[in-house]
Amino acid sequence: MRRPGRPLPASGGPDVSTRVGSVTLPNPVMTAAGTSGHGAELGDYFELSDLGAIVVKSLSVKPWPGNRPPRVCPVPGGMLNSVGLQGPGIAAWLEKDLPQLLRCRARVVVSVWGRRLDEFAAAASLLASEAGPRGTAATPAVASAGVVAIEVNVSCPNLEDRSRMFAHSPEATAAAVRAVSQSGLPVWAKLSPNTDALIEVAGAALDAGAEAVTLVNTLIGLAIDVDRRRPTLGAGGGGLSGAALHSVALRAVYDCRTAYPDAAIVGVGGIADGEGALRMLMAGANAVQVGTATLADPRAPRRVLDELSSLLERDGGSVAEIVGAALETRSASRAPVAGR
Questions:
Q1: In a domain, 333, yes or no
Q2: Quick check: 134 and 109 in contact, CB under 8 A?
Q3: What is the mean pLDDT of residues 25-39?
Q4: Is position 256 annotated as part of the catalytic site?
Q5: Model confidence over 130-149: pLDDT tens digits?
Q6: Residues in Cβ contact with 220 at an 8 Å cutoff, skipping those fewer than 6 apart
Q7: How many CA atoms lie within 13 A of 13 on its CB side?
Q8: In terms of DSSP bridges, do strands 107-112 and 54-55 run parallel, antiparallel, or are they unpaired?
C-alpha cells in the first residue's frame, strides 16, 4: 500500500530523471545525511522508492557515541547541531538497517566518515564486501534498489580538531576519496563551505576519482545561553543548517559549476520547497538533497519532489534542461550541462 501523498508524475509529465556521474536516478530529490536516520525511518510517511535516493546518516567503521548533550538548538533561520556523528558502525548498519531499506526498494547512498585515512579505507572495504554487488550502476538504466554510491563525508564541522578537517585541504580530500574508491562503488565527496579553497578542494576530489561533489555541509556556528552565560550546545559550537545556509550553498554550486562545467554536482542547503530545489538546479546541481526541513516535516522530501515536478510541468521543462540555467554562459543558448 502506498503512503499518503500525491501520485508520481504521469508518463506524460515532465522528465525529472537525472544522472549523477554513472548513477541514473528517476528524479533529483534525495534526503540529506544526518536528517532522516540510518534506515527506513521515513517509510511511515511516503514510499522511499519514490525519491531519487535515500542518503543515510554518516557511518564510521566502528560505533561512535557522538557529542555530549545538548546536541541541537534552533537559531534564527535554521538550527545548530552538535550530534557528533553518533552511529552504530557500518557492520551493524549492514546487518540491521540496509535490509529494511532494500525491502522498501530504496536506492541508497551511504555516507561514511573517518578520522584517519585507514578508517575511510576500512569503511570502503566493508561496503565493498557486503553492499557493492547490489549497488553499482554501470549502465544508463535507472539505478535499482540497493547501495548506488558512497558519499564520503570529508567535512565534519561538529567534531573537534576542525583545523585539520579533510575538506579544508585539497591534498587530504583527494587522499580520502582515493581511500574510499577501492569499494568499486561510485564515490561522491561532500565538501565544507568553511574554507576559501572550496573550488580547489572540489577539483582535487574530482581529479582523485570522485564522480560527484556534494555541496555543501553545514557552516560552523555558535549559540549562547544568556541565562547560563555559556554555549548552548554541550560540545560548544555546532553546524548551522536550514534556510540561512541556502544562499551559501547556491553560491558554492554556482561557482563549482562554472569552474567544472562537466562535473556532477549534488546541491544541499536550506531546500524546503520546490522553488528551493529549482534554484539549486538552476545554479548547476544535477540533483538536490533535502535536510533540515525533514526534521520539521518528515514528508518534506516527497513534497519538494511534488512541487518541483509541478513547476517543471508548468514551464514545460525537464531537469536536464534546467540544470545550470542561471549560469551567465548559458543565458543565451540554454543548453543543458552534462554530468560527469
A1: no
A2: no
A3: 97
A4: no
A5: 765 443 444 457 888 899 99
A6: 157, 162, 194, 237, 238, 239, 240
A7: 19
A8: parallel
Per-residue pLDDT for 10 more than 80?
A: no
For residue 291, the surrounding DSSP H or E stretch is: none
Q: What is the 3-state secondary structure (H, E, C) of 321-338?
A: HHCCCCCHHHCCCCCCCC
Task: Say if 229 falls within a structural domain.
Answer: no
Domain residues for the domain of 92 are 18-66+85-219+245-324
Q: What is the mean pLDDT of residues 14-37?
A: 97
Question: Is there a contact between 230 and 198 (Cβ–Cβ < 8 Å)?
Answer: no
230 within a domain of the structure (yes/no) = no
Place of cell 548547476: 284
Nine-digit cell string for 265: 554536482
For residue 269, the domain's CATH number is 3.20.20.70
pLDDT bin (cut points 50, 70, 90) of residue 283 is: very high
Q: In angstroms, rounded to a whole number, what is the distance separating the alpha carbons of residues 203 and 127?
A: 25
Q: How far apart, in whole angstroms, are the C-alpha atoms of residue 168 and residue 198?
A: 8
**pLDDT tens-place string over residues 110-135:** 999 998 899 999 999 999 977 654 43
Decide if 329 is inside a domain: no
Percent of all residues in the chain with a pLDDT value above 90, rounded to a whole number: 82
- Amino acid code (one letter) for 126: L
For residue 164, how many other CB atoms are within 10 A of its CB? 10
The pTM score is 0.91
Q: What is the dihedral of CA 242, 243, 245, 250, to 10 degrees?
A: 120
CB 259 within 8 A of CB 202: yes
Identify whether the C-beta of residue 107 lies closer than 8 Å to the C-beta of residue 25: yes
